[in-house]
Amino acid sequence: MSTIRECGAADLAAIHAIVNDAAQAYRGRIPADRWHDPYMPEQELRHEIEAGVVFWGWEDDRQLRGVMGLQDVADVVLIRHAYVATTAQRQGVGGELLEFLLARASRPVLVGTWAAATWAVRFYEQHRFRLVSPPEKERLLRQYWTVPDRQIATSVVLADPRWLARGWLARRDADED
Q1: CATH number for region 2-176
Q2: Which of 29, 50, 71, 160 is least surrounded, with the fewest CB atoms within 10 Å of its CB?
Q3: What ranges do the domains of the chain cover?
Q4: 3-state DSSP call for residue 25?
Q5: What strand order describes the sheet that includes 109-114?
Q6: Strands (E), the chain
């Protein structure tokens, strides 16, 4: 039986393993200067948790198969580090996790991902997220995330319907004019 639950300190090794397993999809696709091996060192994962990222996990037979982090930042919620183990991909794990977390978010939700991760962009679009314009992407990444300029240049941001309903869609369209 599968369940979704909040992860704790005892799950750190499993989270780390899932992130680095699933992130292999980025190898050769994202800019070489942004790829690391491992993709996310354990110290970086600990830093993300200390910075307020709360991980939730999809568990089956007492084993985590997918993880997704939420981080409250100012007036939004960020989806951070969403990964499904390669052995559990394309089985609905990511979609169930995302829908579970969206139902609990009390504020608009944003997600950033690599522009080259077209599969991730499609996934979020299938769950009602929409890409924001390039100028809005840069503004949002600088406002809500702490990422280097190189990552800003090679990333995209997607917004959920709550963000779009607040009038940001009109702002995006105006940016494109």
Answers
A1: 3.40.630.30
A2: 50
A3: 2-176
A4: helix
A5: 2-6, 54-60, 63-73, 76-84, 109-114, 155-159, 130-131
A6: 2-6, 54-60, 63-73, 76-84, 109-114, 130-131, 155-159
- What residues form DSSP beta bridges with 109? 77
pLDDT (tens place) for every residue of the chain, 177 residues total: 899 999 999 999 999 999 999 999 999 998 898 898 999 999 999 999 999 999 999 999 999 999 999 999 999 999 999 999 999 999 999 999 999 999 999 999 999 999 999 999 999 999 999 999 999 999 999 999 999 999 999 999 999 999 988 865 445 445 554
- Backbone phi, then psi, for 43, in 5-degree steps? -60, -40
**Helices 12-22 and 42-50, axial angle in degrees (round to 10):** 120
Token pair for residue 18? 């899932």
CA dist list (Å): 106 to 4, 29, 31, 102:
19, 34, 34, 8
